[in-house]
Amino acid sequence: MARPAETAVMDVDAPSAAIRTRYEDDLHSWAREQVALLRARRFDEIDVERVAEELEDVSRREFSKLYSCLRVLLMHMLKWDQQPEHRTPSWIYSIREQRRRLDRLLTESPSLKARLEEAVTQAYPDARDWAADETHLMPDEFPSACPYSWDEIRARPFDLDSAKK
Q1: By the 8 A CB rule, do 142 and 128 touch?
Q2: pTM of the full predicted structure?
Q3: Residue 17: pLDDT over 80
Q4: How does pLDDT run across 47-104, given as a tens digit for each residue?
Q5: 53 SS3 class
């Protein structure tokens, strides 16, 4: 059974914007009210600038998810290649999980595929630094640019048998 707070929606028949929630006071309530106004096609009452800002934030968050998946994935690939004697199954599990997240994200937001090169370019230096920290190696012991093609990032096999037991 839904809780009352979850089912409550703005009364789109309310006469004025004076009773509406301010963005600054309660983002959740403000967003629900904006949705109700959109669905009621009361476009002249929508907080257009703030709605536009929130939609831009959604786009930035989706790119951030892409960057984050790639950063973790690339970090583990670098560690795998740089220190084969320290390989663990957990690195493989992390690679698999990040690939699953990447697949899901690109399925849900296919337009992000056009930004893959940008995301890899942004994520790689951070992945390199992180790999250096975790391996106790200097960053310059890793390639300065991402050494992996998109196909390798997405599908290069990692063998559990080669991981240290």
Answers
A1: yes
A2: 0.77
A3: no
A4: 999 999 999 999 999 999 999 999 999 999 999 999 999 998 999 999 999 999 999 9
A5: helix
Q: Looking up tokens 């959740």, which residue turns up?
A: 28
Closest CA to 33 of 51, 53, 49, 60: 51
pLDDT, one tens digit per residue, over 32-50 is 999 999 999 999 999 999 9
Q: What distance, in Å, lies between the first and last C-alpha atoms of the chain?
A: 48
Using CA atoms, how far apart are residues 42 and 23, in angstroms rounded to an integer? 18
Under a CB-based contact definition with an 8 Å cutoff, are residues 123 and 74 in contact? Answer: yes
Give which of 75, 96, 73, 91 is closest to 153, Cα–Cα. 73
- What does the alpha-carbon distance between residue 131 and residue 74 come to, in Å, rounded to a whole number? 9
Average pLDDT over the chain reads 87
Q: Are 52 and 111 in contact (CB under 8 A)?
A: no
Q: Give the contacts of 21 (CB within 8 A, at least 6 positions apart).
A: 29, 30, 33
- Tell me which residue of 79, 66, 68, 69 sits closest to 158, measured CA to CA: 79
